[in-house]
Specification:
Farnesyl Diphosphate Synthase, mainly alpha, 16 helices
């Protein structure tokens, strides 16, 4: 297979630029989710009247985390997981709040992840803790601005998580259906937290392996980015078909892994102006991503020594040099093949299930949007 160059030369793919024929839902669902989130967050801001005006900063930071960009892939996967069960007839309005909640869950995860990684930016803008630190400084407040920013950002993420629960509860669905979907949703959240812990552990645990790095990718990303939302959508539809659930799980895990592998490549080779964050953040932290662990496995003795010598420089490491060293091991080409193989496996996972042609086509388009991208 011909490798895809993970660089700014690759066209940015979003839900408005999905390859192949598009359904109106490819466009309508993200727009509807965005509108619902804006209205929900506007209501939350209005609720602050008469409480304390300083709380507006907390809510505004949460609002920025939720509405500050993103591909809205998780609600799209949830939507097509639901449509794959109910067909194209029923209106989506009753289920939209539950789908929009996935973006609040995502905001929670990103805000906390940025605190743990001390990331200065997210989507080309200051991360929540960096913005709150600057707010503390600009207001001339006393005490440690860095500590304040981190603590307030943790609360920002917590707030998004609580609001996600509120949105799910507001869905116009039977209580038993919401309860069944909550079980899937809770599993998704637990897996993401397990994956995040292992991600942190990998930075300090000697002898991390490629298998463990791939497990982190499955738990931290695949479960709550693709597989979880698909199964969540099916549960919101009261899915009675275990064959379809199995197909969704196989599709979701394969594609979710491919999504994370693409992220690993973009961390090293992506254009910061497009990705919205500095290049090589994970490498400089020594995070044992699948890309780094694969490079270590494939490197000869000389390459491994050079790689480890540069990694040992930590925050001072030369990302461009690390990128060249990793590429010379053959890890980038192997990663591209792994991504392609997982996309093929994902689309093939649906072959044995009864899935309507529109849903099958939409999931194929989403597979491309998730993996052939520059951000």
């Amino acid at each position: 297979m011909t490798p895809h160059a993970p660089s700014a030369a690759v066209p940015r793919v979003g839900t408005n630029d999905l390859p192949g024929p598009r359904s109106r839902m490819d466009l309508a669902v993200p727009v509807s989710v965005e509108r619902l989130l804006r209205e929900f967050l506007d209501d939350k801001a209005a609720d602050l009247d008469g409480v304390d005006p300083e709380l507006r900063t907390l809510v505004a930071t949460a609002r920025d985390a939720v509405l500050g960009g993103g591909k809205r892939l998780r609600p799209m996967f949830g939507y097509w997981g639901w449509r794959g069960v109910v067909g194209l007839g029923p209106p989506a309005a009753p289920v939209l709040p539950a789908l929009a909640a996935l973006e609040l869950l995502h905001a929670f995860a990103l805000v906390h992840d940025d605190v743990m990684d001390d990331s200065p930016t997210r989507r080309g803008r200051p991360s929540a803790h960096a913005a709150l630190r600057a707010w503390h400084r600009d207001r001339g407040l006393t005490g440690d601005g860095t500590g304040f920013g981190r603590s307030a950002a943790i609360l920002t993420g917590d707030l998004c998580l609580v609001w996600a629960d509120e949105l799910i509860a507001s869905a116009g669905l039977p209580a038993e259906t919401v309860l069944a979907a909550r079980r899937v949703y809770d599993r998704m959240r637990v897996d993401a937290i397990y994956g995040q812990f292992l991600d942190l552990l990998g930075e300090v645990f000697p002898g991390w392996t490629l298998d463990r790095a791939e497990l982190v990718a499955r738990l931290k990303t695949a479960c709550y980015t693709v597989a979880g939302p698909l199964l969540y959508g099916a549960a919101l539809a009261g899915c009675p078909d275990p064959i379809l659930e199995t197909a969704y799980a196989r599709y979701g895990m394969a594609l979710g892994e491919a999504f994370q592998l693409r992220d690993d490549l973009l961390d090293v080779y992506g254009d910061p102006a497009v990705t919205g964050k500095p290049a090589g953040t994970d490498l400089r932290r020594g995070k044992p991503t699948p890309l780094l662990e694969l490079a270590r496995e494939l490197a000869d003795r000389r390459q491994r020594c050079e790689l480890e010598r540069e990694l040992a420089r930590g925050a001072q490491a030369d990302v461009a040099r690390l990128g060249r060293l990793i590429r010379c091991t053959g890890a980038v080409e192997r990663m591209e093949t792994m991504i392609d193989d997982r996309v093929v496996a994902a689309n093939g996972a649906l072959s044995g299930a009864v899935v309507d042609p529109d849903t099958r086509a939409a999931l194929a388009r989403l597979a491309a949007a998730a993996t052939v991208r520059s951000a």
